[in-house]
Write a structure and sequence with these properties.
Elements: H1 11-35, E1 44-48, H2 54-62, E2 67-70, H3 73-80, E3 88-91, H4 100-103, E4 109-113, H5 116-129, E5 133-139, H6 155-162, E6 168-175, H7 183-203, E7 208-214, H8 221-226, E8 231-234, H9 236-239
Parallel strand pairs: 1-2, 1-8, 2-3, 3-4, 4-5, 5-6, 6-7
Bound molecules: pyridoxal-5'-phosphate.
Pyridoxal-5'-phosphate binds at residues 48, 50, 71, 92-93, 176, 217-218, 233-237.
Length: 246
């Protein structure tokens, strides 16, 4: 048989990959939750749906997937009118300030707020719409040049500043740790995030709450949950390898 390196799967193939994986991943999430002293329902199973057809996403939602997250504004907008309203919609990717206007009011949680400036833009847009937008602060836990996000050292001060901005409400933290081939390294980053999360939680900053810790993807979601994550963002393990590199 020929090796096919560029995966081009049809909608039907994607749906059946989802069908094969969904129950298994739910089980693995539940087990990891129990292992960390939580209930399965304490963990939000969010599907990272970039490059995945709306038809496949809606199939997943009809099977009980509770939340979906897109990471490009353009792609999100192209899907939104066709997307089932039975799942929460989150924005999980890098957000430029000038694109915030396109998603404010359309998502229930923005995971990826990486600067006070961006929080201010989201806040202003939200006030104009008469809403409050729930956000997470993205932490660049590995201090990587290539990634945006607050450093662990600055996140508390930034939260204090952001908590004073009308129109946004910080609900927790999010991170994408460095790509590691070694799960014990990821575990160390997740532990560091959880400690930061608890530390900030203990400060009880007004007009904010530390409820959500969004971390863990296809390769490491169980480890993330064991270390305190309560939102996991899973793409490949659910829908198979993406059709093109992203
Ligand atoms: C794509 C993506 C994920 C999921 O990645 P997988 O490895 O495919 O599970 C999670 N978080 C963000 C921000 C992403 O862009």
């Amino acid at each position: 048989m020929m090796e096919n390196s560029s995966v081009e799967l049809s909608v039907e193939q994607r749906k059946s990959i989802f069908d094969e994986n969904f129950a298994d991943i739910k089980n693995r999430i539940a087990k990891a939750a129990v292992k960390s002293g939580k209930k399965p329902d304490d963990i939000l199973f969010l599907a990272a749906t970039k490059t995945i057809d709306v038809e496949v996403i809606n199939h997943a939602i009809s099977c009980g997937l509770p939340a979906v997250g897109e990471n490009k504004v353009q792609e999100f907008l192209s899907k939104i009118d066709f997307l089932s309203d039975k799942a929460q919609r989150h924005f999980i990717g890098h957000l430029q300030s000038n694109k915030a206007k396109d998603i404010v009011g359309k998502v229930s949680l923005i995971h990826s707020v990486h600067s006070v400036k961006l929080a201010r833009v989201i806040g202003d847009l939200s006030v104009k719409k008469g809403i409050v937008t729930d956000i997470l602060l993205e932490v660049n836990i590995g201090n990587e040049e290539s990634k945006s996000g607050f450093s662990a050292n600055e996140v508390l001060d930034s939260l204090i500043e952001i908590s004073k901005i009308d129109g946004v409400f910080v609900r927790g933290l999010m991170t994408i740790p460095p790509i590691c081939d070694n799960l014990s390294k990821n575990r160390a980053y997740f532990k560091e995030m959880y400690n930061l999360f608890l530390d900030i939680q203990s400060k009880k900053i007004d007009n904010s709450s530390m409820e959500y810790l969004s971390m863990g993807m296809s390769n490491d979601f169980e480890v993330a949950i064991e270390e305190g994550a309560n939102i996991v963002r899973i793409g490949t393990a659910l829908f198979g390898k993406r059709n093109y590199n992203f």
